Amino acid sequence: MIRKPWLGGLLLALLVTAPVRAESYRLGDLEIRDAWARASAPMQKNGAAYLTIVNHGGQSDRLVAVEGDVAGAAELHASTVDAQGVATMHPVDGIEVPAGGEVVLRPGELHIMLMDLRRPLAKGASFPLQVRFERAGTVAVQIEVRAARDMPAGGHGADGAQGHKAH
Ligand SMILES: [Cu+2]
């Protein structure tokens, strides 16, 4: 006997939609979502923020600058791992967002480097960053601070933590 088969479907739907997703922002043809930063350790000098940019338009754009009073400066960085497995990172002029494509900033890869944090990044808090694109202009994005262990699977880059002591 099948009792209330719809209940299972309802519960499944709730489970699927339950995870809290960061807000998404629209700026012209660009959509910015999943904006987050890793919680900082006490006395940590630099932090890192990440986001996903989707370009729904037919022309490419470039992420060219990020600003926010949470840090002394914000830079766009790329991380690379050399043949010896040593992670290094370097500033980049901009990050291309191809027409109809998307770019994901994530630990161990492209990231927004928050230099000289003015206050610790506490899990559960959030802070605004001004994100500027060459064509689309500037949008204020609220960055959610997450615990390091909440990072997406597969990413374990050093940016924002140990790796940035070299700065
Ligand atoms: Cu960096």
Automatic annotation (TrEMBL):
A Pfam match: PCuAC
Coiled-coil residue windows: none
SUPFAM superfamilies, per database record: DR1885-like metal-binding protein
Descriptive protein name: Copper chaperone PCu(A)C
InterPro entries per UniProt: LpqE-like, Lxx211020-like, PCuAC_sf
